[in-house]
Amino acid sequence: MVVLSKGELEQIALPAVQRAAPPLAAVTEVDLSTATAAGGGAGRAAAARAVARACEEHGFFKVTGHGVPAPLLARVEAAAAAFFALQQQDKEKAGGPFGYASKRIGCNGDLGFVEYLLLGVNAAGAAAPSAEASPCCLREVLDEYIAAVRRMTCTVLELMAEGLGLDDAGVFARLVLDGDSDSMLRVNHYPPRPEPEEVPKHGGHSRRLTGFGEHTDPQIISVLRSNAVSGLEISLRDGTWVAVPPDASSFFVNVGDALQVLTNGRFRSVRHRVMVSSARPRVSVIFFGGPPPRERLAPLPGLVDREGGRRRYREFTWREYKTSAYRTKLADNRLGYFETAAASS
Length: 345
Fold this sequence. Notes:
The chain has 345 residues and is α+β, with helices and mostly antiparallel strands. Helix content is 28%, strand content 23%. It is globular.
């Protein structure tokens, strides 16, 4: 694995954070095998209720029994490790609007102790090519991974709709499966924490560096898997930060901003971050399921009716949201611009 050089580290003005790691999170676990078993029935209904409850409480939960083969997960991890171990100039050949980048997150000054590969996902469920394609061995395994994870993601989205009691169980999944869906895959590599003398000085040496600053995900849903290295943290409703125990065999699901809007705020987009404190590298792969750019997003009528007609968000297109979001910093409340007066009542 590649470790950023001391010179590169000194260019990153990392924000100060508490020295002590937060307490461990109690993460809701949903076994998808009970929801997809022949006959469905009570097992699927229970899974749908568990998913909805987790989305309402924290906007975050863990999925087991997902059916994505363990050998495929191992191949993805190995291919990602091989890519990030390339020479810097070779990694940068995968540049362009989608491709390789390091340290800089977005275009508004956010920085982190991370390098990453960002790929668009086409209608067939494969990684759309960037200007300079990433290595074939990585692209091939990522295409297989995307197809498997997108299928699993749609099952989760159906359970969300069922848990909400919606008549149309495919209302969320169709947006991700649409031929123009704005979905993406991100592969993050967080190098091992630097030795104390290499840590930028901001009021003392800290062993906890900001890998990826606090934020919510813009899309409908984010489905993440990482190697067995800690670092992911989520914020609870009261603002308390908790650490997510690593689990290399499971997937973690985040509610995104778009889903918060569609559910009229009933499901909450989870605020999360990644802190670097391990002597081992962390690799995470995230599938972001997004709607088509021209899709008009607004609270679903059935959910608005349950709140006496109160719409917490105005209607807007996904393209309009992205245009607005790209002008903000990571930690900003990007949905604030689209809230109605009912959102604060």
